[in-house]
Automatic annotation (TrEMBL):
This is Cu/Pi carrier. The lineage of its organism: Eukaryota, Fungi, Fungi incertae sedis, Zoopagomycota, Kickxellomycotina. It is found in: Mitochondrion inner membrane. GO terms for molecular function: phosphate transmembrane transporter activity. PANTHER family: SOLUTE CARRIER FAMILY 25 (MITOCHONDRIAL CARRIER PHOSPHATE CARRIER), MEMBER 3, LIKE-RELATED-RELATED, SOLUTE CARRIER FAMILY 25 MEMBER 3.
Length: 335
């Protein structure tokens, strides 16, 4: 059973995504929880993830190379200096095209389906249960959305890692890279990292969305002195950015070991007859405990900045389309 407007109106203020109000803000041209609303959120997510990941390509490249060979650079700035000196700006943005395409598709699935699954699961749970276990709804909706989002991301992630971590240039460009991956391994070459990607991205996204929603709620409840709707849109977007950075720090730590495994999987060749699972266990054994945490510092900087900017771009896009910013309104008063 899908949620009705009457059921979802109980969430107005407690958590914006559960609002039924064509109800949400007067004059909003897009009805909350309509098909157009979910498509708008998907478009905002595509912009947010694609643009920010592309902008952070230099940091991502150094991080991936340090995960594959931790002695390659002494730190992220040493990596910038060495790559920039040898190859210039073009070298720093190696793998930028698959990054832009892959994370645009991932963001579309991540944000669009997150909003949809929150709506769907709220209706399945029922009014009282959904209100009582809001955090569980955030977690389950974000996990469900990320499963789909990673299927969209995985081929481009595989190509990006190969381009960035190969000892010699992997390809002459994006299309040449696609041909080489397919020629060497077929479709499996694009999806052999899907399970580790899920292991990295699903916990990451669950933390990203749940911690963001709870942080926004806490800021309006405990830090600021007025209800959300009494602040300007620019002030609300400031809250969005702060909560996003806070959430990003937790995301980086939670997902880093799996991120290291993804980088190594797309860089290490399989032995004859070796399964992806066996290869993963071999890599983890070789890395050891310290090895799986290599590159964590640049990743905290990268993911903290990425997460803050993604939420900021996403909410800015929503504001421009007449929608409210995500989360944080005060709970409705009892009549």
């Amino acid at each position: 059973m899908l949620p009705t407007a009457t059921t979802l109106s109980a969430f107005k203020g407690a958590s914006q995504p559960f609002v039924a109000a064509s109800v949400a803000e007067k004059g909003a041209p897009i009805e909350i929880n309509s098909a157009r609303y979910f498509l708008t959120c998907a478009a905002g997510g595509s912009l947010a993830c694609g643009l920010t990941h592309y902008a952070m390509t230099p940091v991502d490249q150094i991080k991936c190379r340090m995960q594959v060979n931790k002695s390659l650079y002494s730190g992220v700035f040493d990596g910038f200096k060495k790559v920039g000196s040898a190859q210039g700006i073009k070298g720093l943005y190696l793998g930028g095209v698959p990054t832009l395409l892959g994370y645009s598709m991932q963001g579309m699935g991540k944000y669009g389906f997150y909003e949809y699954f929150k709506y769907l699961y709220a209706g399945i749970a029922g009014e009282e249960t959904a209100a009582k276990y809001k955090t569980m709804l955030y977690l389950s909706a974000s996990a469900s959305a990320e499963v789909i989002a990673d299927v969209l991301l995985c081929p481009m992630e595989a190509l990006k890692v190969k381009m960035q971590t190969s000892a010699t240039p992997f390809s002459n460009g994006f299309l040449d890279g696609l041909r080489k991956v397919h020629a060497a391994e077929g479709l499996n070459g694009f999806y052999k990292g899907l399970a580790p990607l899920w292991l990295r991205q699903i916990p990451y996204t669950m933390v990203k969305f749940a911690s963001f929603e709870k942080t926004v709620e806490a800021i309006y409840k405990h830090v600021l002195s007025k209800p959300k709707d009494q602040y300007s849109k620019s002030q609300q977007l400031g809250v969005t950015f702060a909560a996003g950075y806070f959430a990003g720090i937790f995301c980086a730590v939670v997902s880093h070991p799996a991120d290291t495994l993804v980088s190594k999987l797309n860089n290490v060749a399989k032995a004859e007859g070796e399964s992806t699972g066996t290869l993963a266990m071999r890599i983890l054994k070789d890395l050891g405990f310290a090895g799986v945490w290599a590159g964590l510092t640049p990743r905290i900087f990268m993911i903290g900045t990425l997460t803050a900017l993604q939420w900021f771009i996403y909410d800015s896009f929503k504001v421009q389309t007449g929608l409210p910013t995500t989360g944080g309104a005060a709970a409705p008063k009892k009549e």
